[in-house]
Amino acid sequence: MQSQLRSSALDAANSLQFWLLTHGPRFWNTVQRVGPAERVVNRVLINSGVMKSDPRPYRLSTLADYPSIESLTDRTYNSRQLAAPPQPNGRSAPSPSPSDVAELFRRPGERVDGKLVEETKLCPKSTVLFAYVAQWFTDGFLRSRRAEPGAKDYPELDPRRYRDISRTESTQEIDMTPLYGLNREQTRALRTLERGRLRSQSIGGEEFPEFLFDASGEVKPEFECLPPPVGIDNKRVTPEMKASFFAMGSDAGNSQIGYAMLNVLFLREHNRIAGELERNHPDWDDERLFQTTRNTVVVALMKLVIEEYINHIAPYHFQFKLQPAGFSKQPWMRPNWIAVEFNLLYRWHSLMPSTLTVHGEPRALEETINDPRLLTRQGLGPLFDEASRQRAGKVCLFNTADFFHGLTTLPSIVQSRAVPLARYNDYREACKMSRLQSLDELSSDSRVRAELARLYGNDIDDVEFYPGIFAEDLRPNSVLPGLLGTMVGVHAFSQLLTNPLLAPKIWDHPDTFGPEGRRIIEETNSLAAIVKRNLPKDAPEPEVRMTRADWTRV
Q1: What are the pLDDT digits (tens) for 13-72?
Q2: Is 167 helix (H, G, I), strand (E, B) or coil?
Q3: Full-model pTM
Q4: Tell me: the pLDDT tens digits for 352-371?
Q5: What structural domains does the chain harbor?
Q6: What is the C-alpha separation between 131 and 546, in angstroms, rounded?
Q7: Of 259, 309, 262, 297, which Cα lies nearest the Cα of 489?
Q8: In degrees to the nearest 10, what's the CA dihedral of 521, 194, 184, 374?
């Protein structure tokens, strides 16, 4: 009885908060026009979002099922938000095979003239550009340890075949690894070591990274410390495609057109800012120019993530702001340590439609993989424009392209069991949401309910975390389902706002960004602004948006 009353109280509180934040647009617009009021509300709402779950440090990591000095300090392992019970709720319900669970994600399609034609469920709110940004941004810090050479010799359901989500290659910070590399050696290889710049070349009047390979197809000596590009051994990568690979900080830098677009854009922004700092500080040496530029670029990106990316995801009228002051004494203000659950819940491959428009032509998703030539053909502007005019896929079950099935879907399920994780309903409870009592409460989609019942039975407490978070209906005017959106808020804000560059004594010190860097951060309110200032002067202004131009609230 007490448990039921607590669940009812949680439901009422969550529903009231959601209703207040999604109604009364005039009230919220007024709040945001009054600076002091906006700052207070911004702080309260962000703190409320992070405190939906117990804050870090978590008791466990992926090292062991019990705490130890080693598990609490070795950050090459991921932290773990919840411990998994020995059996679902103490019972012995068998888990379905990973292969069967993976079918819950597969996008429907049929063979036409030997080709698989898939039917993408479209997102009511997001553009393909949002999908590109999500992949590129998170790859900088959600970096599972790469599989060992020869891993594909292991059986399909052996965790050793895939990347190890219990371990991380990340620094645990948002430091733009895709642009700057994982460590000092890689960063140094990507720099000119003159005037604070990153290495680049001009192609068709636009700036791009230098090529990774020389004329003979070998990695250039100066780039030998960079990680081997993802997909370089793919049989469909022709010599011409390989020759176009750019030298980038991430092994995924050339993996897909959207990832490469954003990396090229921020390389241009880095060099542009370095030039402005150089003009205003002729006494600064290369190192100071580079590091101050990097500080500025990293924080400008964090500002975009909060003020454009997260606001796009959220269904609220109030628009969150990057305002670091006022959080230093919060219980969640701890050093960053990424949770394995955060790594898994961010696998939004259903955002990617099976067909993408590139250079005015429809291309199968796999045709946009490992081919940087697509960037240099017409330049960046048209590519951002096309991505902003095309609808993304919907984040839900039965909507992930076949291309990802063996790459991410099946591995995610195998990996989540190897950790292991708690069940879906356990995470609802941990995030101050009521435990659902039936599959009918989970989804309005009859197919989703039927397939979950077939795999897990009718007890929702047996449903696993990974399929469960994608089975829920989308929240009105949001990009994500309820628990998934709540957990993104918990982890995203506590990952962003604990960055050392935002600590009061660093954020407020004039040497951190210089006056020019501070101004650039303040003026950077959209990705469109960065694109516009990094295109040729005579280039047409492209559409650059994560939210569809025709989207309206329901």
Answers
A1: 999 999 999 999 999 999 999 999 999 999 999 999 999 999 999 999 999 999 999 999
A2: strand
A3: 0.96
A4: 999 999 999 999 999 999 99
A5: 1-553 (1.10.640.10)
A6: 8
A7: 309
A8: 70
